[in-house]
């Protein structure tokens, strides 16, 4: 997808990362996505004293996405504390998949890649 403003998405992701609540892992994460209707949605990780209940940044992003109208994600940029591209955990790949297309672009440490390469043979709504 040629017309993705990756710099803008990275800036949004860094802004979200700075709002993360990660006192236990000290590993703040931010993520931003561009939707097919031109919105930018973002999220940060939110941890909890009951460690296992922590929410990944992508969980917040998906909540914000659905709250704003259930658009399709076209591009995603997830960052660590240094603003470097961060690969999403397995659970979050599945969360993102539900609201994306196989061609949705994800920024990896090696550059943009289609979501289908991050989650090959994905389970999705069509399997139900
Ligand atoms: N984390 C995310 O927010 N997203 C990911 O895809 C990977 C991990 C968070 C969870 C936890 O708060 C911290 O990073 C360390 O694992």
Topology:
Layout: H1 6-17, E1 30-35, E2 40-44, H2 57-67, E3 73-79, H3 90-98, E4 100-108, E5 111-114, H4 115-118
Parallel strand pairs: 3-4
Antiparallel strand pairs: 1-2, 1-3, 4-5
The structure holds tetrahydrodeoxyuridine (THU).
Quick structural overview:
The protein is an alpha+beta fold and 128 residues long. The protein is built from four helices and five strands.
Q: Describe it for me?
A:
- The chain has about 130 residues and is α+β, with helices and mostly antiparallel strands.
- The chain has one domain: Cytidine Deaminase, domain 2 (3-Layer(aba) Sandwich).
- Helices cover about 30% and strands about 25% of the residues.
- It contains 4 helices and 5 strands; from the N terminus they run αββαβαββα.
- The chain has helices at about 5-15, 55-65, 90-100, 115-120; strands spanning about 30-35, 40-45, 75-80, 100-110, 110-115.
- The radius of gyration is 14 Å and the shape is globular.
- The termini are far apart.
- The mean pLDDT is about 95.
- The protein binds tetrahydrodeoxyuridine.
- Tetrahydrodeoxyuridine (THU) binds near residues 47, 89 and 92.
Portion in helices: 25-40%
By secondary-structure content and strand pairing, the structural class works out as: alpha+beta
| Shape call | globular
The helix-strand sequence is HEEHEHEEH
CATH superfamily: Cytidine Deaminase, domain 2
Poorly predicted runs of 5 or more residues? none
**Which class in CATH terms?**
Alpha Beta
Biggest sheet: strand arrangement = 2-1-3-4-5
The number of helical segments is 4
N-C termini distance:
29 Å
What count of domains describes the coordinates? 1
* Number of strand elements: 5
CATH topology: Cytidine Deaminase, domain 2
What's the Cα radius of gyration? 14 Å
